[in-house]
C-alpha cells in the first residue's frame, strides 16, 4: 500500500473510552509521574510512526506554562473525512479505543502504538485535548474535555491557529509551505494526576532516545516555563547512542554493530565494553523503550554469552565457569527490533516488556553470528573482552567465597546487629524507616529521639568504601557496608532480592558540611552501582537538617538555608535574637533532632530519583572514578556555584 494512502478507510474501531477514566492504570501503568510521561510518550510516538511510514522528517515538542504539552509533526495528518461510523475519522481515532491506522496494518507496517490506543487514552485522561490537522493547505481542529468532543471537526481560522500555536512554527492557512501534519495539545487532568507536572529532563530524554533510534529524524524541544530549547538529530543511529553513553570511559573495543533483516523482522544491536564494572543496556521495539526487557533482550543475552564463551574456549582461557552475570560487567549495548505492529505482544498496555516468543530465536541467531564474525576479524578486541569477563568471573567467585566465610562465622545469619543497628518494632516494610546516621554522636541522639515503633537507626563508623570500582568481594569484607546490607535485608550480588527489603524509607542523615557531603556521595555510589532498585523503587531519601537555630523571645525557629535565616530575621527585625549554627547533627539534643529531622509531620526529607540514568552514570564515573582530569575540570568549572562550609 502506498504510504500516502491514509484515509478513513484505514481507521478501524473496537471500543469506547469509558473504561479508561475508571481504571487508568490498566492503560498507562500508573497515575504517578511514570504514567504522566507515558501519556507524553504515546503522543510523541504517534508522530514517530509517521516517520516509520516514510513521511515525517521533523517533530516538535513544546511544554507550556499551563502544564500542557504540544506535539507537532510534518507527516500526512490524521484523516478528517467521514468514517463509516458516521463521524469524522479524526473523532473516531481520538474517542474510541483500538481505533487507528495501526490496527489491522492498513496505514503502518511498523508502529510504536499497540493497537492505536495511545491518543484516545491520553484524550480520556486530559482535562483539555486539542487536535489540529494540516492537510491540503487547510487546517481542521477538534477540542475535547476529558475525552468528550466539544463540537464536530471544524475548519480552523488563522486567528485560532495563532492563539493556539507557538509563533515560531509559522503555520498559515492556504500556504503550501506550512505543509501537512498533525498537532496535538493536551493538559493532563488533575483529577487523575493531581499536581504532577511534566519533567523537562524526562521529556528531553524521550526525544533524544527517539532521535538515536530513527536516524535522520529531527526533534525540536522547547520549555516555555524557562525558555530552554534543545535539538536532537543523529545520523549514526544506535551506534551513536552507545558512543555517547561511553564518553569519558576507557573502551575495550570499537562499537560492534550487528544488523539482520528477514521478511517479518529487523534486528539492530550495538555493543561495546568498557573497563568499568557496571552494565548499561537498553532495549527497544518499534521505537518503544522496553524498560523491563523481554524476549529480544533475552535473545541478546543468550547470544552474547554463547559467543564470548565460545571464543574463550578457543583461546583456552576458561579457568572458571562463565555465566551470564559475568557478561554484564562493563557492558554497554542497545538492542532494537522492528516488526509489524499488529504482531507485537506486550506484557501490559504500557509496553515495558516484549513477549513475542519468535523474537528471541531470531535475535539470538543474528547477534551470535554478528559477534562471532567481529571477534574473528578483530582478535585483539575479542581477547580484551574475554580477559575482562574472566576477571569478572573470578571476582564473582571471590565474593561468594567471602560471603560464605562470613556466613560460617554467623555474622549474617540474622538481621539484628547488636550494638550497631537499633531496629524498629514494626515488621511492615511499608511503614518502616532506616536512618543511616553519620557517627556515634548523632547516632546516640537519633536513637533517643526516634519513634522506635517504626524508625531504625544505623550509625556509620566513618566514611565507607568508594564502591565505584569495587567488586562484590571487597564490599562484603567492609564492616560498614556489610552492616548496611544485612540491615536492609535484601542481600547483595546473586542473592539480591528487593522484595525482601525491610524498610521502604532508607534515609541518609549526615552533617551539613564537606565530610557529610562526601559520606552521602559514597552512600549514593553504593546504592546506584550495587542496589539501584532501592532508588528506582523510590525507597532512598536524604534528610535535610536545619543549618540554624534562631531563638527570638523564647520562640525557636529553624532555618534550612542562609536565605531562610535572612527572611526570619527580617520578619523579626525589632526583636532580640540568638543564632546557633549547627555544625553537626551531634550538636542537637534528641528532642531537637526529632522535631527537625525525624518527625514525619515537621521534617524535611528529599526523595532521591534518577530522571536521566545516562547522565547519572556519567556523573558517578567522573566524580567517583579513577580518572582525575575530568573530575578536576568539573570542580574548577562549577566551584563558583558551590556553597562550602569548611
UniProtKB/TrEMBL annotation:
Cofactors named for this entry = Mg(2+)
**E.C. code:** 5.6.2.2
Record domain Toprim: where: 432-546
SUPFAM superfamilies cross-referenced by the UniProt entry: ATPase domain of HSP90 chaperone/DNA topoisomerase II/histidine kinase, Ribosomal protein S5 domain 2-like, Type II DNA topoisomerase
What Pfam families does this protein's entry cite? DNA_gyraseB, DNA_gyraseB_C, HATPase_c, Toprim
Output the Gene Ontology terms for molecular function. Answer: ATP binding; DNA binding; DNA topoisomerase type II (double strand cut, ATP-hydrolyzing) activity; metal ion binding
Q: Which controlled-vocabulary keywords does the entry list?
A: ATP-binding, DNA-binding, Isomerase, Magnesium, Metal-binding, Nucleotide-binding, Topoisomerase
The reply on keyword ATP-binding is yes
On whether ATP-binding is a keyword of this UniProt record, the answer is yes
Catalytic activity annotation: ATP-dependent breakage, passage and rejoining of double-stranded DNA
Query: So which domain of life are we looking at?
Result: Bacteria
Concerning CDD domains, the annotation shows: HATPase_GyrB-like (cd16928), TopoII_Trans_DNA_gyrase (cd00822)
The UniProt entry, under InterPro entries, shows: DNA_gyrase_B_C, HATPase_C_sf, HATPase_dom, Ribosomal_Su5_D2-typ_SF, Ribsml_uS5_D2-typ_fold_subgr, Topo_IIA, Topo_IIA-like_dom_sf, Topo_IIA_B
* Gene Ontology biological process terms from the UniProt entry: DNA topological change
Its family remark reads: Belongs to the type II topoisomerase GyrB family.
What is the name listed in the Swiss-Prot or TrEMBL entry for this protein? DNA topoisomerase (ATP-hydrolyzing)
In which organism is this protein found?
Candidatus Woesebacteria bacterium RIFCSPHIGHO2_01_FULL_39_28
Amino acid at each position: 500500500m502506498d504510504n500516502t494512502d491514509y484515509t478513513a478507510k484505514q481507521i478501524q474501531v473496537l471500543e469506547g473510552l469509558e473504561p479508561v477514566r475508571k481504571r487508568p492504570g490498566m492503560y498507562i501503568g500508573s497515575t504517578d509521574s511514570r504514567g504522566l510521561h507515558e501519556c507524553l510518550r504515546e503522543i510523541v510516538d504517534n508522530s514517530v510512526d509517521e516517520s516509520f511510514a516514510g513521511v515525517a522528517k521533523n517533530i516538535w515538542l513544546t511544554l507550556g506554562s499551563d502544564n500542557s504539552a504540544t506535539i507537532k509533526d510534518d507527516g500526512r495528518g490524521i484523516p478528517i473525512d467521514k468514517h463509516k461510523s458516521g463521524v469524522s475519522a479524526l473523532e473516531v481515532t481520538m474517542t474510541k479505543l483500538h481505533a487507528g491506522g495501526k490496527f489491522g496494518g492498513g496505514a503502518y507496517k511498523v508502529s510504536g502504538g499497540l493497537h492505536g490506543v495511545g491518543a484516545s487514552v491520553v484524550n480520556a485522561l486530559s482535562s483539555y485535548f486539542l487536535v489540529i490537522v494540516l492537510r491540503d493547505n487547510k487546517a481542521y481542529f477538534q477540542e475535547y474535555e476529558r475525552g468528550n468532543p466539544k463540537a464536530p471537526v471544524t475548519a480552523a481560522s488563522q486567528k485560532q491557529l495563532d492563539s493556539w500555536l507557538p509563533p515560531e512554527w509559522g503555520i498559515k492557512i492556504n500556504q503550501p509551505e506550512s505543509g501537512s501534519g498533525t498537532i496535538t495539545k493536551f493538559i493532563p487532568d488533575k483529577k487523575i494526576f493531581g499536581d504532577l507536572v511534566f519533567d523537562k529532563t524526562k521529556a528531553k530524554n524521550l526525544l533524544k532516545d527517539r532521535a538515536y533510534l530513527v536516524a535522520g529524524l529531527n526533534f525540536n524541544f522547547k520549555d516555555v516555563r524557562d525558555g530552554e530549547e534543545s535539538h536532537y538529530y543523529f545520523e549514526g543511529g544506535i551506534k551513536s547512542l552507545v558512543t555517547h553513553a561511553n564518553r569519558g570511559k576507557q573502551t575495550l573495543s570499537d562499537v560492534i554493530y550487528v544488523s539482520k533483516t528477514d521478511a517479518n523482522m529487523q534486528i539492530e544491536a550495538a555493543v561495546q565494553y568498557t573497563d568499568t564494572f557496571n552494565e548499561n543496556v537498553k532495549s527497544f521495539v518499534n521505537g518503544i523503550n522496553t524498560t523491563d526487557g523481554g524476549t529480544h533482550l533475552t535473545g541478546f543475552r543468550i547470544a552474547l554469552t554463547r559467543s564470548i564463551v565460545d571464543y574463550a574456549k578457543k583461546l583456552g582461557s576458561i579457568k572458571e565457569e562463565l555465566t551470564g552475570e559475568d557478561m554484564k560487567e562493563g557492558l554497554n549495548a542497545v538492542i532494537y527490533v522492528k516488526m509489524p505492529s499488529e504482531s507485537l505482544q506486550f506484557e501490559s498496555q504500557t509496553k515495558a516488556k516484549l513477549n513475542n516468543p519468535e523474537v528471541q530465536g531470531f535475535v539470538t541467531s543474528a547477534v551470535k553470528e554478528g559477534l562471532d564474525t567481529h571477534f574473528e576479524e578483530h582478535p585483539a578486541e575479542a581477547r580484551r573482552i574475554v580477559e575482562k569477563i574472566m576477571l569478572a568471573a573470578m571476582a564473582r567467585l571471590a565474593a561468594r567465597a567471602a560471603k560464605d566465610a562470613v556466613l560460617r562465622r554467623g555474622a549474617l545469619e540474622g538481621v539484628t546487629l547488636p550494638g550497631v543497628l537499633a531496629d524498629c518494632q514494626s515488621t511492615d516494610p511499608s511503614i518502616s524507616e532506616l536512618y543511616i546516621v553519620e557517627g556515634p554522636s548523632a547516632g546516640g541522639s537519633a536513637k533517643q529521639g526516634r519513634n522506635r515503633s517504626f524508625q531504625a537507626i544505623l550509625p556509620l563508623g566513618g566514611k565507607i568504601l568508594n564502591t565505584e570500582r569495587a567488586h562484590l568481594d571487597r564490599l562484603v569484607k567492609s564492616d560498614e557496608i556489610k552492616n548496611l546490607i544485612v540491615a536492609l535485608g535484601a542481600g547483595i550480588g546473586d542473592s539480591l532480592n528487593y522484595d525482601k527489603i525491610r524498610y521502604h524509607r532508607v534515609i541518609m542523615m549526615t552533617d551539613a558540611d564537606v565530610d557529610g557531603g562526601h559520606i552521602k556521595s559514597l552512600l549514593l555510589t553504593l546504592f546506584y552501582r550495587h542496589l539501584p532498585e532501592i532508588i528506582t523503587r523510590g525507597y532512598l531519601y536524604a534528610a535535610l537538617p536545619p543549618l540554624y537555630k534562631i531563638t527570638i523571645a523564647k520562640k525557636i525557629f529553624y532555618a534550612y538555608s542562609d536565605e531562610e535565616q535572612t527572611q526570619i530575621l527580617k520578619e523579626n527585625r525589632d526583636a532580640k535574637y540568638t543564632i546557633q549554627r549547627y555544625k553537626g547533627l551531634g550538636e542537637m539534643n534528641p528532642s531537637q533532632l526529632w522535631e527537625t529531622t525525624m518527625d514525619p509531620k515537621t521534617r524535611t526529607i528529599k526523595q532521591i530519583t534518577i530522571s536521566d540514568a545516562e547522565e547519572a552514570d556519567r556523573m558517578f564515573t567522573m566524580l567517583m572514578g579513577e580518572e582525575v582530569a575530568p573530575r578536576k575540570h568539573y570542580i574548577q568549572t562549577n566551584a563558583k556555584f558551590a556553597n562550602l562550609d569548611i
